[in-house]
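Fold this sequence, please.
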Amino acid sequence: MIRDITLGQYYPGESWIHRLDPRVKIIVTLAYIVALFVVTDFWGLLIAVVVLGIVIAVSRVPLKFMLKGLKPIFLIILFTFVLNMFMIPGKVIAHIWILTITEEGLNTAFFMAARLILLIIGSSLLTLTTKPISLTDGIEALLSPLKRIGVPAHELAMMMTIALRFIPTLLEETDKIMKAQQARGADFESGNIIRRAKSLIPLLVPLFISAFRIAQELAMAMEARCYRGGQHRTRMNGMKLGKRDLAAAILLIAFLAVIILERVLIGR
């Protein structure tokens, strides 16, 4: 299950989505996430699903590879669904012991689960189609206007990108530690959920040690290359907005316009 997490990974490709400017992709992703919480009915959610499906098809990232990233958070999605289904008051549909299922609760549970799924897939698509260095440059460029008020844009962009980039690395380390402990007789798969969760506690100490070791190696590598932050930094490949980026911006505006019109005319 640990190897199924796709957030932070990069899927090589030469699709139209891969060649978009990272600044445009970041803005589009943020706008899509906001749009997910704007829709309040089935038709708006259907529009969001169709748009995301088209983008995935254009990106040429295998759908199975993206859906694989939902496995590690399946329990969170299920917990959110059940919690909303039983805790929202409204028109009663059924009684289960001391719990009550309401029409409003079922509707809220469905929309929250759907939003989480689309949000995770949409966010994963950003990292899957953007190289880490391009993502860093894009975040830094978007935060650069804040430099005037003392915000360290380069440092923030670097920290965010390193955090995303090292998710797969730490997952690989966790997998290695689990296999080493399983070879010594550890059992991570038998028993109920609580027992399996407790069996993962011995992983924390070696995982923290490994994380500090990786961080120290990264710091030494950056110092050896005379890294001094964003000061006087130049780029081999500059970012320039092209025709495809303009087309993506127009499509984003059209998508937001459709979502807003649907909310005003149908979802009110």
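Residues 93 and 225 are 65 Å apart (CA to CA). Residues 153-183 form the longest helix (31 residues).
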